[in-house]
Amino acid sequence: MSRLIDDYIRSEDERARADQIDELAARFAERAARHDREGSFPFDNFADLREAGYLKLTVPKQYGGDGLSLYELVLLQERLACGDGSTALAVGWHIGQILHLRTSRKWPEPMFADLCRSVVKDGTMINTFASEAGTGSPSRGGKPETVAVPSEGGWRITGRKTFSTLSPILDRFVVTAYIPGEDCTGEFLVRRTDKVSLIETWDTLGMRATGSHDVVLDDVFVSEEMRITGKGEDDGGGWLLHIPACYMGIAVAARDYALSFARSYRPNTLEAPIASLPSVRHAIGEMEIELRTARSLLYASADRWDREKDARPSLKPVLGLAKYVATNNAIRVVDLAMRIVGGGSLSRHAPLERYYRDVRAGLHNPPMDNAVIQTLAGAALAETAL
Predict the structure, then answer these.
(1) Among 247, 307, 317, 338, which is most exposed with the fewest C-beta within 10 angstroms?
(2) Which of 30, 74, 25 is closest to 52 using CA atoms?
(3) For residue 164, pLDDT beyond 80
(4) pLDDT tens-digit series, residues 282-340
(5) Which residues form the Acyl-CoA dehydrogenase/oxidase N-terminal domain (predicted)?
């Protein structure tokens, strides 16, 4: 029988890519415990991702990338997270945002083309830094305390950003800033200079190796053409499915570990491994229900987003639901895996305790549970009454 994680591979090309990512995931799994323990950024993993061409997966083919679909992004991100959730989540912000820029066209084409060519040629990466300590999550509409003021030929930006994933490795990034003279929030593409400093604040329970430190901008000059004024097309936020894909991958890794343990562990009170016990088989069955339900919804949502281009804005409730179910089911799967393994699951010498910590971070990635519930309620109430 094929493995559970292979269920959604549709072609030989997808099989070949999956096999390549499996090799990377295995390599990253060997390093994950050290980076988690140290809270260190996995530069070695990102060098491997660049070498493998992973950073250009969603770059349009016209600029030398692979032009992968959302479905394929989900497929590969899930597998990568089986090896190291931190690395998968971090790189997901990059390849996800490239996909978002590709479909929304919110950047001027020359700016986007320059970024894409740099990704392909130099392994450049991108992320948007919007969170701040004083405003909370940007997805909840907080006004940035970071400020951009006009200067000759451009803007000067001052402020401090939190949760700045990938910050140790980026030479450019987008920041949101309040523009007092216009009473609005703007976006700016910033290059790293001596006016940009990294404050290593990221010391968390889980996802310890994402490099999500604070970034401080001290009167940073940004030229006029680096202000991003376009809104682009509403693509429904499909690219954010890189987040639930990551947590599904962690859950699959926990499930596989628990299955291996159940097949091999035989206490001296039993004549067969614990996989023969009805209680253990019941827990395994529960894991399968949670995983198969969530993965079915996740891949179906990604496929709809790829196919229904004109309907993408209306798919937000579906996409949010996919994230909600995947994240919460993933937490349940890891908990069940730990019950199967028992007290040994708490050991720092085994990966389950890291999965337990990492998977909970999904609750704090957008869209958050209560936002999803409100979106679904709004969609239901907006339906035409019979």
Answers:
(1) 307
(2) 25
(3) yes
(4) 999 999 999 999 999 999 999 999 999 999 999 999 999 999 999 999 999 999 999 99
(5) 11-97
218 — alpha (psi -120 to 50), left (phi > 0) or beta? beta
Mean pLDDT over each residue of the chain, to the nearest integer: 97
Is 24 exposed, middle or buried, given 0-12, 13-18 or 19+ CB atoms closer than 10 A? Answer: buried
Domain 128-228 indexed as CATH 2.40.110.10: yes
For residue 147, the tally of other CB atoms under 10 A from its CB is 15
Class of domain 238-381: mainly alpha
Pinpoint the residues of the chain covered by CATH 1.20.140.10. 238-381
Beta strand pairing call for 172-179 and 128-129: parallel
Separation of first and last alpha carbons in the chain: 47
Classify domain 4-122 at the CATH superfamily level. Acyl-CoA dehydrogenase/oxidase, N-terminal domain (1.10.540.10)
Q: CA distances (Å), 16 to each of 79, 248, 294, in order? A: 13, 21, 24
Q: What is the pLDDT of residues 39-98, one digit of tens each?
A: 999 999 999 999 999 999 999 999 999 999 999 999 999 999 999 999 999 999 999 999
Helices 109-122 and 85-104, interaxial angle, to 10°? 150
State the pTM of this model: 0.97
